[in-house]
Amino acid sequence: MQHNQPNMHPGTRPAREHLSTNTSLEELSDRHPDADPLHHPRPEHCGHVAEGRAGGVTSIAEAARAAAVFIQDSAATSEFGPYRGADLARTAVRLASTLGLTLDRITVTPDWLRRRTGLGEPLLATAACPATGTRYEFLARHPLHEDDPFELLGPCPMCKARVPLADIRHLADLGTFLTTSPAPLDGGPIPPTYPDTFAEDEAHTSTCPYGPTP
Length: 214
Description:
The protein is of the alpha+beta class and 214 residues long. It is built from five helices and five strands, in the order H-H-H-H-E-E-E-E-E-H.
């Protein structure tokens, strides 16, 4: 199908606004006559690896190209370096896809609590619900392993520290957790609905009976 809109790289400022607002590319080109051919996020936005606002409907191809450019841009401009920047961006893209959200609803930061030596240190990813504003926090414990589930963080029933309460591989996993809530502990064995990492997580308080053994 032919169209009269000019071809623009999905990384340009007008193209990105087109993807997020559904405003015509001609109007956006007039608004941004000096737009760079490939826009890189400013360093101050590296902690919030997704920018923009939710808008009109886009095609799968447009969304895919925008995601690819987003990862490239983040890797090139991240204050943490290209490899860490790519980890942040890929995690944002993966969580947005898992929850059916746009990238502007996802924030990813390094997890300074669960640090370890080596590649792919843990990341914290926060998703903001566009309808209610509710925020959900997820741990990507091994961000290089993209087949690993996200770990939904919430208060430990015993010590109230924010620890993994559920493995989230897709949206229905989150729905199951929100329906059933974490099973009570009451000093007994850990129910099988808890993730394997629950009892190993470093966030438990030192006196929590379910935390790591000193």
